[in-house]
## 1
Amino acid sequence: MKIIIILVLCVSSYALNAQSGSMQFFRPYDERGLHMFETTKADTIPFQKLHVQVGGSFAQSFQMLRDQNTAEPLLLPPYKGNVNSLIPLTNGFNLAMANLNIDAQLSDGIRVNLTVYLSSRHHEDTWVKGGYIQFDKLLFLHSDAIDNIMKSVTIKIGEFDVDYGDQHFRRSDGGSTLYNPFVENYIMDEFATEIGAEFYYHHKSGLFVMGGISNGELNPTVVAPTKMDSTTGQINHYDPAFHGKLGFDKQITPDFRFRLTGSFYADHSANSNTLFGGDRTGSHYFYVMENQNVANGTTISDEVDYSPFSGRFNPGFSEQVKTIMINPFIKYKGIEFFATYENAKGRSISETDTRKAVQYAADLIYRFPANKENFWLGVRYNTVTSAVQGLPQDITINREVASAGWFLTRNIMLKVEYVNQVYQNYPVNNILNGGKFSGTMFEAAIAF
């Protein structure tokens, strides 16, 4: 932590002497970043000299949730006590989350990013999320032909959240919650930082295509594999993961914008793929549908650390995963519609057959007043149906959410939501049998 503080002070002192202005080909962390997805090729910021920008994102929530289940009491040695009992909940403040953002414009068309999780539910201590370099110009090659090509091409290299689907542009990421009109993310939260590269081609018509390759791992390793793959009967191996996106995004009229994308992600064999469990910050719903007795029987007795993904569902495709996502986005004046269809197949290393998980989600947001849109009302429906290893039938989880919010300034946001989530088809010996939780969440957030 001391090293991070020293680094921030050093960079901040330099930033005071650096050029003031904005980053090129950049998504702001505040309200200006709403409705932005991949950075565009609009070359509107002139480069003069090296520019460093230090910022942060903070979120504090107040939780008023209650949960219940109908699971039968279960003793499961070596754990002590009923492992199907739920932790009693009350109203109160959750742990505040904070991110540190350091961005630098190194040269014309070249910038770097470093994001640090200073505090979050999953990791209360300081953790580096990742960092990358993005090339929108390659002027150092001194080639007119390449300069012309780069007017439509973007290259991103480093460790970053892979651009699978569009939902990861609208999710809460630790202390960064201004892009999300709701408090929490999807039930099946597809987000992981991996080492790799992405290549974008943008056409002036609004069409774009992206191809990417990564190591398929959140926590990379050079230790040789030793586990046996149950499907192949051979020692596991670590293949690269591939992902891609094809889309159309255009402001058709001053009042109407249309975007439609299709994405895929595929990893044939991995050490431990975490596409559906790679969030190092954790859920913004604390303690719901969780059991303290199991936490007490692990090396991590603090339930916040033991189970940081309350309310989410991870299908457990750690060895092999193939998934597609389709996202339409429509904005007409203050009315905004965003939807998701996701179809994933995969397995763990101990399984011989793949399983399937399907997710649907739809957001309908109304932002007002006209030309300012600093208030909003929103509703979301999210459902997941999946086969689960060890369970006899597919399970279903449904969530309905209603929200309202206010951007006091472009850097300060308040939001409130009511959530209702129901678990179906879990067996009577599972803690989620007859499970449900509901209630109200308040959240205040700052980003700059």
## 2
Amino acid sequence: MKRSIWIIITIFALIAGLAIGVFGVSKIVQNRAFIPELKIIGDIRNVIKIPDIDIFEDTSIINIEGDTIKAFPLRQLIDFGEPFSQQNSILIVGHDGSAAELDYSELAKSYIAFGSEHGWHSINLNHPVSTKIKRIKEIAVISKGMDIDYEYGLSIITTGENLLNITPGQAYGRTTEYLNPEGNVSMEKDGSQYRASIYSKEKVLRIEELLDHDIEENIVLMGRDGNIVYTGNTGLIKLDDNHFNYVDGLSGDREIIDLAGIMMDPPGASIMDVYNDCIYYTGRDEKVMVIILDGFGYHQYEYAYANNYIDFMKDAGSITVVSSVIKPVTNSGLAAMFTGRPPAENGVHNHDNRQPLVPTIFASIIQDNKRALYIEGDIQILKTEIDPVLNIDRNNDGYRDDDIFEYSMENIDSGFDLMVVHFHSIDDAGHDFGDIVVETMDRIKILDSYVEELVLGWDGYVIVTADHGMHPTPDGGSHGEFRYEDMFVPYIVFSPGQ
């Protein structure tokens, strides 16, 4: 919001005064009764709203058939919005349905101007005259390149495949308009009651249209604010300037603002089950150890299993795939596990948040007069009801997991009802080398041996899972996006004595 305000202020500062130039040239008649707002939307980080010609100042003087006109360069205007990609097409859409599509790289001598006769209109001196769109409704930036990461737009995934990643600009031409009921109004006049229904036009599309086939299974939808909707009704996706919103059917009973992605045929569980399982087991006076293998995606588990990098974890009695949360990073993942609530409810959405807004599992343990131990790396990631035991890399081998493991084994028989052990080296290796390369697989192999010793030494249930997964990048690996590699992790339960 602050950046959008800054953009508008910048435009005011850079381009105020077009009115003087416009009203001082021929064929333009001054008429200030109504000036429609012009918006630039689509694949830009900041929506540009131009409500008035008075915002223009630093403009270009162009000559068209002897007439001198002040106008603003279109490419410079687009750049104010910070396009997602440098490979774009620019769709200029008129109120009458006419449109012209220009390549972002070919916007030299393309301008936007305002006049009482044609309203906001485009002037493209290097293009055919048919590209001059009168009474412009909006301008959409459409990404053409493959360099758009999954942090933007809408992604549709399964547990083993990224089906689709589409940006708002790319979806622009696939939407249909429908009348959204806003409400009913009435007034009394001359003893009679006059009523009317008010509607607004919205651009919408259905998930079936994106995938080009009917959807029969249940789906899970997640917003960038951490909101989650489980539904069998696919509802409507609304295109809202530079992001998507979701409404569960025309009634709008459930809504997600800034929809990040959709899981098709999702697993029936999530990392939030850690909280529920711990409550269940400790409520039966069973001891529980939670082992968190940071950055260990389910696809990495499958690869390690198939290539003999794990021996112990593949023999567990209960292995399932579960979903992480948005944003799939450590802070939000741990908060979801510790609270049993999605980020929209626990308040931890990303790396910037450290304080859950609701009680964690440690509060429940304390309330039940039980003992808990939380063993971490060298920093406190979340603020919880108990302080974690921090571990540095004492032997300078580049990893802290051996130190975390040693401390865990030293305290495994100390009478704790709940132990949480957070290992980090799979995530560290994944970032440095990649998700399924030998260096990362070697760390998984080491962690598998740590898990084995902890399970065999613990007199109770053991839950092994991860906060998020890891996807490959040209330089190694990363996470934090709505894609199957980041969003699905293993969930393994070892029973006492197993």
## 3
Amino acid sequence: MRKTPIAAIALAGVALAGCGSSSSSSSSAAASATPATTTTSTTVAPQTAYIAPFQHVKTIASTVPPNGDVNPYGIVIVPSSAGSLVSGDLLVSNFNAKSNNQGTGTTIVQLSPTGKRTVFAQIKAASLPGSCPGGVGLTTALSILPGGYVVVGSLPTTNGQSATAEYGCLIVLDDSGHPVSTISGPNIEGPWDMTAVTQGATTSLFVSNVLNGGAKKGIHTVDNSTVVRINVTSGPGQAPKVVSQQVIVDKIPWRDDKAALAIGPTGVALASDGTLYVADTLENRIISVPDALTRTSPVPDAGITLSQGGHLNQPLGLALAPNGDILTANAGDGNIVETTPAGKQLLARGADAKAGAGSLFGLVPVPGGGGVYFVDDAANALKLLH
């Protein structure tokens, strides 16, 4: 039995809309800048909600690079300039190749807030400097470490189908986009999303995994996905070095899915009190993991259910708002949902009312407030809710 939810909210059914569905991102054409559009809200929210004032969505830029990769998943803001990285720019990882096969995307694009796009990295499996079972298929897991090192997750396939999915790895790039190492092994099995928090000389990577153990034949849902904490050291001229690994939550359900490739734990974010929040996509809930920076064993019962059902509809990307609330992006309906640390859902704001299900993945608040950047894989674009 999982622990009693902090907020008693009715369970909503899971909508099978592709987190990574090829049907949701069939266009590889560059998205052109469009006028701002008015969004819709599914509830009346108090003005204390971070996203309450934001009524419009505008396209910043296409995320499609010259090689035609589609399905933007991961998103991170560059904290400081180094090498090719420009402070305030955004990095976006692509999960699909031009063929639209999932788990075959190889590019990270860099976009300025005004829409300038360059290719930060195009990663070839043959040139990886370490082990990465299956090769390259870049996921939502994307972080920037001290020294300008970029870490990106890989969950590769050969043909876009879950039957050919391999465990992959974390790929470490320098500030010019060149691979310098990989992180793989038994704790990395389908890295799907990630957040990074630096304290002193150590950065803790919190990585959610969706392929632990592989799908057992004849079993549709497997309760063995994890979130692992990987502590690394890095700095200018000092490539990240792994110093410890610890699984901090396990037994999270996942399943392989033809349309979505894999449905399981996705977005992660660490609060100032040391609590890690995790989006449990399959069970329409947000998990809380206390003492995430220090715990030495997995939290029991697949984590504490903070909030479940209600406006949560296949939550994928997860980030913290400046006010400490939890922002999640729904795969099931194209909404961004704001939930308090106490588990109260404040507001669901339509971010892609046109495409709806299957369009959203990674998201991050605008530095200093003023909106939320998010990737829309139905339009293959970086957008701004403002």
